[in-house]
Amino acid sequence: MSVLKSTRTEWISFLVLMPLIDVITLYNMYGERIWHDHKALSIMFLLNYVVGILTFFLNVFAMHKLQQALPELKQTVKRVILIVLSHIFITIAVFSVLFKFYDAISLFGFKMDVQQLNLSVWVVIGMVMLSDTLWESEFIYKKYKDSIIEKEAMQQLSLQQEFDALKNQVNPHFLFNCFNTLSSLISEDKKQAENFLNELSKVYRYLLRNNEDSLSTLQDELNFIQSFYRLLKTRHGDAIQLQVEVDKKYYKYLLPSLSLQLLVENAVKHNVVSKYQPLVIDIFSMEGNKLAVNNNLQPKKIKMPSNKIGLANIQSKYELLKQTGYEVLKDTRNFTVVLPLIWNNNGEMQFSFVQRNNEHLNID
User: Fold this and answer.
1) In what order do the strands lie in the sheet with 334-340?
2) How many domains does the chain have?
């Protein structure tokens, strides 16, 4: 806030109160006779109005300087006291000089009287206090609103940092396995190795692209998981099966990026995957705008090292997005994760920390 620039509220209060102050002051100075001398009334009204404008700017200058020096809400009492004292001092000083000047030149026969001066000063101080109440209320409201906005911005920044950290927790274990598979294929079947490399490039192009985004459409995630599955199929053959039954009406809905990849990878990592015990992964839509990812439960006897990122990662993303309905269901035969699908309003979902839309990426 500039110390010289007045707000709309400040100007309005001045323009409303100044004529009233001017009239009361003239009455105190000249009494009833001022109403009968139109020339004196016009000139004195104009002179006092000009002085009023100068006083207004002095008051605003002092107030803005104090507001800049003591801007915090917790400093309100100290700030208000200093503003009131400064305005009282300015008012007394201006009117004392003004009345003495008028008396010295005997303007329209004016003779200064201390009682007149005191009455005028206290009337003006009362009006100034009324203005101060309006001005300070506006300032406090603005600071309060700014503090809320700043607090929300800090929370959003914190959420964004948390979200970025979650997005970067993609397990590199899968990449190493893919490179081992590719190395074996090169010597065994160059054509299949070429196809595998093409699929791998699609998968990692999507991983790199969507790891920058918070949300993806279900259609993009399903397209991606098909390429991801083809890589797994090359490695495991008939030992792994993927079945997808999703109503197309949900294709434009959103979910946290790479959720399906994390769940499928998690299923492969923790379950037996063999020709005689095939791992079957089902992805299907449910009523209530939900998606289920289910796999038959056949835990490995030797548990793989786990950093517990996968499920916690997805759950944290939904919590950050303030979306409810995420569930993990487990019995003796099946392991199921239920993902809420987020309504994509007119093709985009606005979150405070999601600044750009997900672009459609066809990786088939």
Assistant:
1) 240-245, 279-286, 290-296, 334-340, 327-330
2) 2
